[in-house]
Design brief:
The protein is 37% helix and 22% strand. The protein is α/β, with parallel strands linked by helices. A 7-stranded mixed sheet has the order 3-2-1-4-5-7-6, with helices on one face. Helix 3 packs across helix 4.
């Protein structure tokens, strides 16, 4: 229910640069903390899984680190909207939005995967990433306790570092490296 509402909201908001900027604003400090725990920099190639219609994670990663980002989603309408939003931010040289289901191996080499709160099935996606990424580096947002029933569960894994956030839907991001 919440995932579907957010997906619809993003598709509507994606038509306006101004509304997209408002939508992105609360995530700026979140991304600062996530970038810090994973040491993301311009040498990284990031796979943003479940980017949605407003790929705010990809946009902020590209702007703040100059990393190249593949922003993927399995929803064609979300991908088309995300491509439009990336164009509005003139980041087509730093972000490539791709229609792709993360339960299938991704065809490009990446140095870091970023698993969105809405992405699912998380366990299968993590298994595919672990099989295909060397080294395995993952950032994953974890829902707040009161919202866990609305999101697919993240598999038990030991985090190397955590970032804690004052957000309603999610309270922390795990950084896992193997």
């Amino acid at each position: 229910m919440i995932r579907q509402f957010i997906a619809r909201l993003e598709k509507v908001v994606s038509h306006s640069r101004w509304l997209s900027a408002l939508y992105i604003a609360p995530y700026k400090k979140v991304l600062d903390r996530e970038i810090a725990i994973a040491n993301v920099d311009s040498d990284d190639v990031v796979l943003n899984i479940g980017c949605g219609a407003i790929p705010f994670t990809a946009i902020l990663l590209a702007q703040k680190t100059d990393a190249f980002v593949y922003a993927i989603d399995r929803d064609l309408r979300a991908v088309k909207a995300a491509q439009r939003v990336v164009g509005k931010y003139q980041l087509q040289d730093r972000i490539k939005v791709v229609l792709h289901d993360a339960v299938e191996p991704f065809s490009h080499d990446v140095t870091l995967a970023f698993l969105s709160l809405q992405a699912q099935p998380k366990a299968k996606i993590v298994d595919v990433l672990k099989e295909t990424m060397r080294p395995f580096r993952l950032l994953a947002r974890i829902p707040a306790q009161r919202y866990q029933r609305f999101y697919d569960a993240f598999p038990e894994m030991e985090a190397k570092k955590n970032a804690f956030h004052n957000m309603k839907a999610f309270e922390k991001t795990l950084y896992i490296e193997e």
